Amino acid sequence: MNEEKELHIDEGWKAQVEREKELLKHDAKPASATQPEEHVAEPVLPADTQHAPPPPPPPASFQFLIASLATQAMACLGQIPDDAGKPLPVNLPYAKHFIDLLGVIEDKTSNNLNEGEAAYLKATLHQLRIQFVETSRK
Length: 138
What we know:
It contains 5 helices and no strands. By secondary structure, the chain is mostly helical. Helix 3 (62-76) packs parallel to helix 5 and helix 4 (92-108) runs antiparallel to helix 5 (115-137).
């Protein structure tokens, strides 16, 4: 039972990728022969962020899960602006979906949360439901 596992490292994958690249070069038709070439501008990032690694994600927590779903609901209710500062379009069916997901979490975690978590979830759901009703009346 004390058999030592053998480690197998596949070194041939690099050669296979190179062969596939060469085949694609020979089989591919020039883009100009099939369709006009479009110029697509690359997004320009500020100089100080072009090579900076993205920040690490926040720690996983119950509050972050609730906040993530609530943010999605708020976006669907038109409460969060896009990058240009314009309100996102209202999407009531998806807003209801995210609010319902939070309701499922409330039901499934009943009597299993600490006092702070339960209060946070309850308050978040209350605010979202009020906002949903107000938005749907507009």
